[in-house]
Amino acid sequence: VRTAKRTDRLEVYRPGVLSAARRRFLIESRLRNALSTGGLHLMFQPLVDLASNEITGFEALARWHDDELGPVSPNDFIPVAEESGLIVQLGRWALNESMRQLSRWDKAQGSIVPLRMNVNLSPIQMVRDDVISAISDALRMNGVDGRRLTIEMTESALVGDPDACRTLLNALKGFNVSIAMDDFGTGYSNMASLQSLPLDALKIDRSFVSDMLVDSDKHAIIRAILSLAQALKLKTTAEGIESHAVAEALRDMGCTVGQGFYYARPMTADDAFAYWLSRWEFEAI
Ligand code: C2E
Ligand code: MG
Ligand code: MG
Ligand code: MG
C-alpha cells in the first residue's frame, strides 16, 4: 500500500489500481500521438470459403507498437479509444487505410479477383461520428465498390439506440455495403432485432469455436446459431478456427466462411497478398 499526500487529505491507493489508471492514461496520450504521426498499422487475416477453400477476403485488424509501451493489443487500446473519443479518428483511419490497401492489391493483380475487406466498426463511432460519410468517403477516395466492404459490428451497438442503429445500417445498404454481426453469441441481441436489422452475416464468436469438438454445449450452440442464420438467410463466419478438424466440422455443419490461426494469423499487407497469390495459383493449377 502506497500513500500520497494530496493537499490536506491523505489518500490510500492500492498499487495495482494506481498502475492500471496510469497505464490507461499513458495509452490514451500515446495513442493520440500515434494517430497524428501515423504510428498505427493494419494487419490482415484471411477469410476462407469453407466449401471451396478459397480466400474470399481479409479482416483488417489494427496494430500498434509504441516506443514507450511496446506492442499494445487492440483489446487494450480499442476500449481506451472508445472512452476517450479517439475511436472516431482511429475508425476513419482504419476505413481509409483498408480501402487503400484493397485498391493497391487491385493494381498488383490486375483486379482479376475482387478481394473483399472486413472492417470493424465500434458502436461508439456510430454515435460520435458521421459513419455514413466516413464509409462513403473511404470507398470513393479509393475507387472501391461498396459490395467489397463488410462492416463488422458487435451486438453492443444495439444496446443504446436500436432504432438509430437500424436507420444507420439501412443507409449503409444504400452503398451496397455488407453488415456482419461480430462476436455473435456473446452479446444481447434478441430475435426481434436480428430479424429487423439489414444483416448479411453472423460471425460466430471464437469462444464457441475453438473447443467445439470437446465441449458438446458449445457444439450445440454453434448448431443453433447456424440454423438460426439459415432461417434468416444470413451467411455465417466462424472465427478462431485453429485446427483442420474444426474447419471440417464447421463445413459439414453448413458454415460458409472460416477465419483462424489454422489458416493464417493476421499478416502484413505484403505477406497477406503473397499468401493469397500462392493459394490462388495453387487452386488454378
Ligand atoms: P475481432 O473483430 O473479433 O477480431 C478477431 C480477433 O481474433 C483478432 O484479435 C484476431 O487476431 C483473433 N483471432 C483470429 N483467429 C484466431 C484464432 O484462431 N485463435 C485466436 N486465439 N485468436 C484468433 P485482435 O487482432 O487482437 O483484435 C481484437 C479485437 O480488437 C477485435 O476482435 C476487434 O473487436 C478489435 N479491433 C481490432 N482492430 C480494430 C479496428 O480497427 N476498429 C475497431 N473498432 N476494433 C478493432
Ligand atoms: Mg471483427
Ligand atoms: Mg470477431
Ligand atoms: Mg472476437
TrEMBL record:
Organism of origin: Sphingobium subterraneum
Residue numbers of the full-length protein present here: 296 to 580 of 580
UniProt name for this protein: Diguanylate cyclase (GGDEF)-like protein
Domain EAL: from-to ranges: 24-280
